[in-house]
Design goal:
The chain is an all-alpha fold. It has 3 domains: 1-30; 34-114, no CATH class; 125-326, no CATH class. It has helices spanning 2-31, 36-43, 48-59, 64-69, 77-87, 96-124, 132-145, 177-190, 192-202, 212-217, 228-244, 249-255, 262-283, 291-306. Residues 215-224 and 316-327 have low confidence and may be disordered. The structure holds 2-acetamido-2-deoxy-beta-D-glucopyranose (NAG). Residues 175-176, 233-234, 237, 291-292, 295 line the site of 2-acetamido-2-deoxy-beta-D-glucopyranose. This is ELMO domain-containing protein. Residues 1-19 form the signal peptide. It comes from Synaphobranchus kaupii (Kaup's arrowtooth eel). One of its GO terms (molecular function) is GTPase activator activity.
Length: 327
Amino acid sequence: MKHFLRALIQFFVFLYCKCLWRTLKSVTRKVTGRCELQRICYNNKPGARRTLKIESSLKFSKSELLQSAVSVHPDSVEKAIDDIMTLKKINLDANPQLSISLQACLVQIVGYRSLLGEVEKLRREPYDCENPEHEDMLLKLWKTLRPDAPLTGRITKQWCEIGFQGNDPKTDFRGMGLLGLHNLLYFAEHDKAAALQMLHDSLQPRHSKMSKADWEKKTFDKAIGYSFAIVGINITDLAYSLLSSGALKTHLYNVAPEMPSLMHFQQTYSYLMQEFHTFWVEQDPCDIMEFNRIRNKFHKRVLKQLNDPNMALCPHFAASDIHLVNL
Ligand SMILES: *[C@@H]1O[C@H](CO)[C@@H](O)[C@H](O)[C@H]1NC(C)=O
């Protein structure tokens, strides 16, 4: 009888504990796990802050479905969101805005990935002088930057006037492939005034630091700012490394409410070119030997700016200007 009683008590204690455990679990699930995506959307305005949080929540989720959502094809985003809503048992009618908000985040997340793929492909494509499209782009670059001075030939010293190294630019693209040319041309065509000004400044002798003898001998090499095209290709390298390290996420999630595209990347590049130029002038280097140091300093400064999730690099795209449906 005694044994029976003890067993009975143990049984009830067990039931009680189990019940308590379940309640606890469901409460925690409500407060944390299950509603995390919801909580992020409710507590953060659209933009980088929200999308970055959704991204890491998905990535570090225990559920495989959630983990794999960040790498679905852009065309499958809608289905991925439906699956998540079903898995999380979220009532769509009660939360009509949630799936829209989640979808906007996921479109940005997978868009960034596909942009990186697109940029990588361009970077790996070498400049090919047999390819008429490549040649056309190169000639267009010349025409945009030097409208009044026609090229005397395809292979000519004139290329140095826009900052290439020799008489055939094809070798200068080596590091960044076609991406370097695409970016230079985008900058020259879309921010023409800024590009021309930058080219002009880069060709100016540095009066203050030049000796009279230099002037007389017209040995400007040391005094000249920098080679426009070469620096332009190098800033493509910088933009590319910001993109591939993920540092550009804050910027792109803030400026591209739908999906970051090549255009956004090229706008970012154009902005970096102008900022680099301003920075270069501010730093007042003696000569091009200081390029490495100034570039590193500039890189660090941009990284620091991008650390702030409210940050957008282009001034004409302030994060606060983004019009998205609020949850
Ligand atoms: C750009 O400059 C940095 C620093 O001087 C250098 O390490 C890098 O290789 C350059 N990139 C290209 C594509 O020339």
